[in-house]
Design goal:
Blueprint (H helix, E strand, L loop, with lengths): L4 H7 L3 E6 L1 H6 L1 H10 L2 E4 L5 H4 L9 H12 L3 E9 L5 H10 L3 H13 L4 E8 L15 H6 L3 H12 L4 E6 L7 H19 L6 E4 L2 E3 L7 H13 L3 E10 L7 H19 L5 E6 L33 H11 L1
The protein binds (3S,4R)-3-hydroxy-2-oxopiperidin-4-yl beta-D-xylopyranoside.
Length: 331
């Protein structure tokens, strides 16, 4: 029996979870067992994205999201909702409408419907996903369809709308590439902190931030002196922190599996040891449990060509990354 990551997390007052799809759980008894063994929290990997829930204006498809919520409830698992607004999952019909009409109702009605539907089940929502862009012209904010039609106030308005529809849900902004010591990520960290500061000063209902944490072995060593002050600034604003999409992109797949797995595990251990030193970090979610389902897989990859950046390999055997997470959670 593999040691439970959720049990280890809970021992320290935290949670461990993963992103998953209900169809994957239903298709694989081994995945189901790993989810139940390791997780206290689930994030729907795709089911709660706008294009998954409302592919056409008059066509709602909440079946898979409802199914995942039912699975969570039946097994006493908590749910992180992901994500109300994301430039990459906005359906074309909605983008067209937002650009054409510039009417907040397009977004407002959607948030009301979805945050409202899951108000008793989703404990924490990623309300806005990936609003930061280092190349963005306005304050490091991404030039997305929401920004173009509503201006930078779309973030605060989305948070207000989510709060109105689901007053008990904790609301978060989720984003990526804050981990490494390079100029792009430095610009991103600064822009993110500025955004959080503006929102908190304005009294916007924002409870938490999500740090995706897609680690990357090609980006050089993780440095506590970079990460710790960043986390401390977020914590200092009174915000909780969730690690929301942890995985590792290997890039170089020429080494032996043993060496590759050791490198992945070391990176995860190093990252988690730094971030879990911050009490405001309330939990860790990996973006999948098994390499079989990782979004990082090169198309058509099989065998050794598969990226090995999740806790279990493609046949659901736990890897050193699993032990690394377990050890960091208990450290
Ligand atoms: C990814 C899913 O894993 C893919 O299956 C899907 O095709 C695209 O989205 N950052 C996020 C997640 O916030 O929603 C993304 O998930 C991965 C990057």
């Amino acid at each position: 029996m593999t040691a439970s990551l959720s049990t280890a997390a809970t021992e320290k007052g935290r949670y461990f979870g993963t992103a998953v799809r209900i169809d994957q759980i239903e298709a694989s008894p081994r995945l189901r067992q790993a989810v139940l063994n390791d997780c206290g929290f689930l994030t729907p990997e795709i089911h709660m994205k706008w294009n998954a829930l409302q592919p056409a204006r008059d066509h709602w498809t909440p079946g898979p999201a409802d199914g995942l919520v039912r699975f969570a409830q039946a097994n006493e698992l908590r749910v992180r909702g992901h994500a109300l607004l994301w430039h990459n999952s906005t359906p074309h019909w909605a983008e067209d409408e937002i650009v054409r009409e510039r009417n907040w109702n397009t977004v407002g009605r959607y948030i009301e419907a979805v945050a409202g539907r899951y108000r008793d089940h989703v404990e924490e929502w990623d309300v806005v996903n990936e609003p930061i862009d280092a190349d963005g012209s306005t304050d490091g904010l991404r030039d997305n369809v929401f920004m173009r039609s509503y201006g930078s106030s779309y973030i605060a308005r989305a948070l207000e709308a989510a709060h109105a529809a689901a007053p008990k849900a904790r609301l978060a902004i989720n984003d990526y590439s804050f981990e490494y010591d390079n100029s792009t990520e430095q610009v991103r960290r600064t822009a993110f902190l500025k955004l959080l500061e503006r929102l908190k000063t304005a009294g916007t209902p924002l409870d938490a931030v999500g740090l995706q944490a897609h680690l990357d072995l090609s980006k050089g060593p993780l440095k506590p002196e970079i990460l710790k002050p960043f986390l401390a600034e977020i914590a200092g604003m009174g915000l909780d922190i969730a690690i929301t999409e942890l995985d590792v992109n290997e890039h170089d797949r020429r080494l032996s599996l043993r060496e590759r797995d050791a490198r992945v595990a070391d990176e995860v251990r190093r990252y988690l040891d730094i971030v879990l030193d911050e009490p405001k970090v309330k939990g860790v979610t990996t973006w999948g449990l098994s390499d079989e389902h990782s979004w990082l897989q090169p198309t058509g990859a099989k065998g050794a060509a598969l990226n090995r950046g999740l806790p279990y390999d493609a046949v659901l055997e736990p890897k050193p990354m699993h032990r690394a997470i377990h050890a960091s959670l208990l450290a």
